[in-house]
Every structure is written in structure tokens, then in C-alpha cells.
Amino acid sequence: MARDMVIRISEGVRRQFTQERFIAAEYDRAYSLTSMILFFFSASTVGWLWEVFLHIFIDGAIINRGTTWGPWLPIYGVGGVMTLVLLKRFADKPLHVFVFAYVGSGILEYTTGWALEQFRGVKYWDYSESLFNINGRVCLEVLALFAVGACAILYIAAPVMDDLFRKIPRTGKIVLCVVLITLFTVDLVFSAIYPKMGPGITMDVSETTRWIF
């Protein structure tokens, strides 16, 4: 009787330890270069779809959002990769991840918005009507959404997608990465020569730049 109880307790401890190790392995893993590249394009495409469907809901129109012509928004891909590269070391402290993602998203979005305004003379997004915004480039509520998204990426999306990427044969992954990088490079060059602008995509800088607190 006592022996059976000890066995059951030992088995329970073993299962708990295995479960904890499994959970930790879900996000505390090393991502390969090919997985990072594929994740960049996946996050960029998901971000593009999010903004396209958002404008369908708000404006009732299909608008090819973003600074490039392809079906991707690079800022989302950069943010997703930065989350894995910079914040994975803090994965056991979710509050730290949230705060760092909040600040990091603000820096990324503000500097990207500023650079686009300087080089193209237009704004691709504007939060001037939102409370607690800085020059319309960042605002409180959107950064909070990005921080939540970063946590979802680190703890859920990235491990699940990495498991899927690992099922692709190595040669196939390399070919896919090369094709995507080539298409993306062509799109960047084309977009630099023929910038994507127009209603629902860009707006005049002089009419929107101001601080609201």
C-alpha cells in the first residue's frame, strides 16, 4: 500500500517535471536563421492582413496598406524578430517582456515614422486624434496593443510557427527564404523608385504633425 502510494507520488512528480520542461521548451528555444527569416515574412504578412481588414471594417474599402507594394508590412516583421532576439532572455518574467516590448515598440514605430516623413515627406499613419500621442507617430493605446502582441509572439505564435517551419525539409526552407528575400528586395527597390502613396495610405505631414497629451 505504502509502496503503491510512493510510486504514484513519484509518477506525479515526474509528470509535473516533464510538463514544466515542455512548457519551458515552448518558448525557451534557439531559433534557426531560416526560421527567423520565415517568421519575419509571416509577421509582416499577418500585419498587412490586419491593417487591410481593419480598413475594410472602418472605411469599407480594400486598401493596400504599407510602404511597399507587396503583401507585407516590414515594421511588423522587424518588431516580431526583435521580440525573439532581444526579449527571449526575459521570457521567465512576463511583466518585463511587456514593459520592454512597450518601450521598444514605441522607439521602433516613432523612428520609422520619422524616417518616412523625412525621406518621403508624408505620413503613413497618424495618431494625432488619440490621447497621449507624440507627433502623431505613437500613442498610448496602440503601443499597449503592440506590447500584448509581442507577448503573444514570444509565448505562443513563434514556438508554434517554428514547429511548423521545422517540418519543412532544409533544402526547401533555404529555397523559400531565398525566393522571399529576392522578391522583398525587388519590392524595396521598386517602392523606393515609385513610392506607394494616396488616399488611405499617406497624408500630408504639415497637416498632421502636433503633440497631444
Automatic annotation (TrEMBL):
Keyword Metal-binding: no
Descriptive protein name: ABC transporter permease
Organism: Blautia hominis
Pfam families assigned: ABC_trans_CmpB (PF06541)
Alphabetized UniProt keyword annotations: Membrane, Transmembrane, Transmembrane helix
Transmembrane segments: 30-49, 69-87, 94-116, 142-162, 174-194
Highest taxon in the source lineage: Bacteria
